[in-house]
Predict the 3D structure of the following.
Amino acid sequence: MKKILIISVFMVVAITLMVLTSGCLFYEKEPVTEDDSKYIIGYVSLLKHLQSEDIEVKTLGISRQPFFSIRSMNLTLNGELVHVFDYSNITAAQKDKALVSSDAQFIDNTRMRWTGTPHFYNSEEVIVLYVGDDKKIISALESGMGAQFAPQLVEEK
């Protein structure tokens, strides 16, 4: 009887640990303020938002981009490649964000050779890179993550 009790307790602890650690790669957190709630916080929220915007989302896998400190989750949005970087905290995301020049032509003093127009977005600990010109994708990213941070758009007078 005592042996069954010990095994049961061990199994409960093991299952609890598995549940708690299973979501460590991409996690969600609650918005800090009411203003934050209008923007994406976390990878899962980004996917839900894009799907709600009638964007076809397909997951391709994870890859390493040489310019940021973490790997990216690669997606296609309506058939176009998008890189999503989901950091463990805002400080790490801000550190990599600071590497991108305001015109997006340099990352960490390395000249970039884009195959199209780059668009960098940041919301909390998520950075998204989309290289392309699909207005529906750009609109969906902006509505969920705010204005792109690079290249910085010049307002016409």
Strands lie at 57-64, 71-77, 80-86, 106-107, 110-111, 118-123, 126-131. The chain has four helices and seven strands. The longest strand covers residues 57-64.
